[in-house]
Specification:
With 120 residues, the protein is mainly β. It contains no helices and 11 strands. It is globular. The chain starts with a strand and ends with a strand.
Length: 120
């Protein structure tokens, strides 16, 4: 069964850090571009960051540049999103997705999401 499973979300204070994980099962993540999206209540889902397949090429939304880092661990078939200097505006449901190329306009698989709440 093909699945993407996110984990690592939670409640964090402003200025804090979280590392989200996107674990693949039933397929090899390195054969796909993997992106992180987020959706806040009442807003559209937006791509935050993307890492290309079989390369280390990465891209970030302006809101994430300098604070978030996307990376792969192929041995663990997992993609991470390290988020530093978190702000209340980063509060959202974060999803990972797999597709052919960055930015991820075509989606083959979605995860179920993990909630990130930034609040004091």
């Amino acid at each position: 069964q093909v699945q993407l499973v996110e984990s690592g979300g939670g409640l964090v204070q402003p200025g804090g850090s979280l590392r989200l994980s996107c674990a693949g099962s039933g397929f090899t993540l390195d054969n796909y571009a993997i992106a992180w999206f987020r959706q806040a209540p009442g807003e559209e889902r937006k791509e935050v960051s993307c890492i290309s397949r079989r390369t280390e090429s990465t891209g970030y939304a302006d809101s994430a540049k300098g604070r978030f880092t996307i990376s792969r661990d192929n041995a663990k078939n997992t993609v991470y999103l390290q988020m530093n200097s978190l702000k209340p505006g980063d509060t959202a449901l974060y999803y990972c997705a797999a597709g052919p190329s960055c930015p991820l306009f075509l989606i083959d698989y979605w995860g179920q999401g993990t909630q990130v709440t930034v609040s004091s």
